[in-house]
Amino acid sequence: MLDALTVALGAAALALAAWCGFAALRDQPTKDWHFIGMGVVTLLALAQLVVGVVKLAQGGKPDEGTVIFVAYLVGALAAVPAAGLLSLSERTKWGSVTVAAGAVVLAVLEVRLYDIWGTPGA
Q1: CA 54/CA 21 separation, integer angstroms
Q2: Whole-angstrom Cα distance, residue 93 to residue 24?
Q3: Which of 4-8, 61-65, 103-107, 110-114 has the highest mean pLDDT?
Q4: How far is the C-alpha of 102 from the C-alpha of 85, rounded, in Å?
Q5: Per-residue DSSP letter, 92
Q6: Rounded distance, CA 99 to CA 34, Å?
Q7: Mean of the per-residue pLDDT values for the chain?
Q8: pTM for the full model?
Q9: Does residue 62 come out as left (phi exceeding 0), alpha (psi in the -120 to 50 range) or beta?
Q10: pLDDT at 120 > cutoff 70
């Protein structure tokens, strides 16, 4: 897979988690700026999904199986939007906590996706 995109997405997810976590510490709900950040992270996840599917179409084989790889790609794409939707129903600091948690989940999924694909040349 594209390692640079995986690292960028993981870093962006952690930055979003810190930003929303800081908002929660200040007792603030998610605001428009947070949703713009969620959109950026989601676009990166969509790009990763496309790259992953293209790599599979080119004959790439994940070390741990294609089905689990695609499932993790779809889960990574859905993590932040799902948390964002939940934060809309909870317009308190707990909405910000929800987005921060979803972003941390995405960062963990990125580490797992890297493991599933396998190391280059191995």
Answers
A1: 35
A2: 5
A3: 103-107
A4: 11
A5: S
A6: 9
A7: 92
A8: 0.90
A9: beta
A10: no
CA angle 11, 1, 69 (to 5 degrees): 90
Place of tokens 């603030």: 28
Tokens of 3: 């390692």
Residue 10 sits at φ, ψ, to 5 deg, of -60, -45
* Residue 7 DSSP symbol: H
In the structure encoding, which two tokens stand for residue 23, read together? 């908002």
pLDDT digits (tens, 9 = 90+) for 26-82: 999 999 999 999 999 999 999 999 999 999 999 988 988 899 999 999 999 999 999
Could you tell me what percentage of the chain is helix, strand and coil, using 3-state DSSP and rounding each to the nearest 5? 80, 0, 20
Residue type, 4: A
Supply angle C-alpha 22, 98, 78, rounded to 5.
120
